[in-house]
Amino acid sequence: MNQYQLIKLAKRVGLYALIAVVMVYAIFPFYYAVITSLKPSSELFRVDFWLSSLDFGNYVQIFTQKSFVRAIFNSIIISLSVVLIALLLGITASYALGRVRFRGRTTVMLVILGVSMFPQVAVLSGLFEVIRALNLYNNPGGLILSYTIFTLPFTVWVLTTFMRQLPMELEEAAIMDGATPWVTITKVFLPLMWPAMATTGLLAFIAAWNEFLFALTFTLTDDQRTVPVAIALISGGSQHELPWGPIMAASVTVTVPLVILVMIFQRRIVSGLTAGAVKG
Amino acid sequence: MASVTLEKLNKVFGHTHIIKDVDLTVADGEFVVFVGPSGCGKSTLLRLIAGLESITDGDLKIADGVVNDLPPRERGVGMVFQSYALYPHMTVYENMAFGLKLAKMANETVDDRVMATARILQLEELLHRKPKELSGGQRQRVAMGRAMAREPRILLFDEPLSNLDASLRVQMRNEIARLHHRLGSTMIYVTHDQVEAMTLADKIVVLRAGRIEQVGSPQTLYQQPATRFVAGFIGSPTMNFMPAQLLSSDGEGCKVKAPGLGELALPQDASGESRGADLTLGVRPEHLRLAEAQGDNAFEIVNVEYLGNEVYVYLEPKAGDTLLIHRSEAPSRWDIGQRVALVPELEHVHLFDVEDRALGLAKQRQAA
């Protein structure tokens, strides 16, 4: 083996070592959560790097809790509603912002971007008043409203950028064929915007699914809580015991659907985010 | 099928006046081509007719009805776009049926129309393919089919061939000409390519900076250009222009003096010009003969292009920096570096005044 081949081999080994480091760094916490969730509570604090037991006790425990099942149901309803509302508003807004020429279009875009820069905490108290005034406190509607506010800027921006890249002549051809703007959007643009919609929809879903602060603040009773809050409020036998087993089982349970969703849509996400970067 | 009339049509975008007082009549069944350099407003004019742009001032009539405020679908126009703009997610059939379905036609009617159109354009085999599975020429035909399926009164083409390669362009040009012959419908066609304009048109409209420069048959535009702009735009290679001075004029014509050519007796009527006026001489490359150089009136050959059937000889001009071109049948006995005399065929020479307007023939004027 000569020097050149040696260097090549070293580079290759280095590359894979680096990949391994990144993988471990990214995946280890989740992996550890999975193994912990499968341990009986007596073994919880023994450090194991490999799956030492297959005990589904923790899962049984959380799924027999009515409030947790209810929380999953709430989360699904709220997240799906947010996605649907955000996409509907996003598509129509992006048609106006991307296709219709009007005065102040850039200002509107900048305001939308500006809104997304406020941290959640900054608007928390104001939003609380709004939700009280709208009589949405301790109601899924309150969460749907507040999540939509935070999701829309991103949705509108991505969809507008995408909409602008659809050729102008396509819309004009539809106009010549006698299509109204609504028909143009639904019959011509929507089928072409699936990648962008999958991307923004998925990201909106993940954001709504994982949100904690608003969910904690705007709900009061167990039956209105979403999953992140429900997990945080899982309590043990005494106030000195943190029930790590059930918490880990719950975390794994709510993360798996996301992982599956991302895996299904991963190609779409990438093509949606980079769409139009290269003419294609 | 219908005629189209434009009366004092104007279009203003913000502060830019794109179309200025355009008057034009397109007869029923006529093939009219708008031609001009980029930015002359030819596409805008087509889009005004289509209804994709609003008319600022003036009237647009289709078959005697003013259609200024009608949306495209009610004007009865079909349009073929430069980039085809086919709906990528629909099959060829769906592309052609889209407009018909939006017009709420019965399914059988839609089917009949699409099949009939497909037959005319030889698209029957491709009806179930998506646009991405088609070649450029096929996409072009589908775009035409989509415009034709609604049986519009007028078909509009916006530079439909400029996305195709050269050989396909010639083929599609032929197909469009045959289509017009067979359908006999009114067609308006925009192009910047004067060859397409010459070969397709019954009537050419030359536009320049938002105004109509000249309207006429291809023959008229080639043989009697009204202005220097039209003379230079129509014909390839372009017409040669040389400065000339008016010496005298009478009922038979006029005498001019041009550097390098000496004194020429031309049949143009220059009675409106004062003696010594600066004129421009225009000679098409095929009307410029070369002869052995004699005395001072010699031009140097700087390049010779051999094209197989013909030869272009480029000559150093006496004024300006645009090379003069002589065209003749191949083979040519001339070579680079030779000095030659230029002999224009006087009956084919054009003469333009200071404002670049062509001077008419003296004899014609007498006859009229």
Describe this structure in words.
The complex is a heterodimer of chains A (280) and B (368). Chain A is mainly alpha-helical. Chain A has two domains: 3-43; 65-273, MetI-like (MetI-like fold, Orthogonal Bundle). Chain A is built from twelve helices and no strands. In chain A, helix 1 (3-37) packs across helix 12 (244-273). The two termini of chain A are 44 Å apart. The relative contact order of chain A is 0.13. In chain B, 26% of the residues lie in helices and 33% in strands. With 368 residues, chain B is α+β, with helices and mostly antiparallel strands. Chain A binds chain B through residues 167, 169-170, 172-179, 183, 187-188, 191-192, and chain B through 50-52, 71-73, 77-79, 81-83, 85-89, 98-99, 102-103, 146-147, 150.
CATH class descriptor of the largest domain in chain B: Alpha Beta
Strand content bin of chain A? under 5%
The biggest chain-chain interface is: A-B, 16 and 24 residues
Text of the CATH class of the largest domain in chain A: Mainly Alpha
Strand proportion of chain B: 25-35%
Instruction: Report the helical percentage of chain A.
Output: over 70%
- Which CATH-level-2 architecture of the largest domain in chain B? 3-Layer(aba) Sandwich
Morphology of chain B: elongated
Number of helices of chain A: 12
- The CATH architecture designation of the largest domain in chain A is Orthogonal Bundle
In this structure, how is the largest beta sheet of chain A organized? none
Q: Report the count of strand segments of chain A.
A: 0
Q: What is the number of domains of chain A?
A: 2
Quick check: average pLDDT of chain B?
90
Mean pLDDT of chain A: 86
Work out the number of β strands of chain B.
20
Biggest β-sheet of chain B, characterized? 6 strands, mixed
Secondary-structure-derived class of chain A: mainly alpha
CATH superfamily of the largest domain in chain B: P-loop containing nucleotide triphosphate hydrolases
